[in-house]
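Tutorial handout. Part one gives the primary structure; part two gives the three-dimensional structure as tokens.
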Amino acid sequence: MSHSPHGHGHDHLHPHGEPPHAHGPGGHSHAHGAGILGWLRGTFGHSHDVGDKVDESLESSERGIWALKVSLVGLGLTALFQVVIVWFSSSVALLADTIHNFADAGTSIPLWIAFALARRGAGRRFTYGYGKVEDVAGVLIVLIILSSACVAGYEAVLKILHPRPMTHLGWVAAAAVIGFLGNEAVAVFRIRVGREIGSAALVADGLHSRVDGFTSLAVLAGVVGVWAGFPIVDPLVGIAITIAILFIVRDAARAVWNRLIDGIEPAIVGEIEHAAMHVAGVKGVRQVRARWVGHKVFTDLQVTVDPDLSVRGSQEIVEAVVLELRRHVRSLGSVVVDVRPSSADS
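Part two.
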């Protein structure tokens, strides 16, 4: 039994040695969203009615785009305020933080494009939809963050080699605090929406903003150092921020790489196995496979049942398995359940 990449109820029963197919809702519900442009509706050319086309996956993409728009404006305004202070103060630590805030705002753009493409749904060429574009966006995000680290580090080293006095210490401190507050507000917003729609990329982007907020606070250390008569602290804090950004790059690159090669959290596989075993009539669960496609988990698994069970009985178990999976596994997308008699060879 399978579901389409959009989460529609296309249930295909595959008992061992028997190919019949039955179609039904599979026990899951659709979230009917609004605001999809008319020309996008034409891309969902399935046999269902229009109400079934605007499903939970599309609604989550809409909310993701909305979150990115808001965070882009918030971080952009924060960075613009900081750049004015950098111009007057010559603070390298604040410059490094400002560059990274612009980069963080810029990471919203590829993710925005990925969410927009995901709304187009599946077709004859991209039969699983455009969810994997989110992983490609992740690669671009990593490159943007890496570039910001290189620029910030270069500016910090340049100031060590060619010192420039920092002025307007009070304004620099204020800009650092505003940078922290702006990043933390965006972090809370991105993480909350990301968890609501099941987007690991959006949650990771939110955690990234939270780290940026603390790097903004680090700028205060540079201000204190200059105020105490140690101007070298400012470029040193810039280097420290650069190193912090590189750690973010490492963690983000690792997460993106795992997604690109279809890595999945073992806990999710455990949830799938656990949920399926809770269904009456399921004797065992084998060959569980799962992967992220955008911010949805696609999975296929094999369940064993009583070998004397009828096709109708097997179909009922399949529907019950899908319903149980959707109750317990967050962000579940397409599901394929293969039914085998318990006496079959492994």
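Part three, for discussion. The beta strands are 14-15, 284-293, 296-305, 332-341. The longest helix spans residues 56-89.
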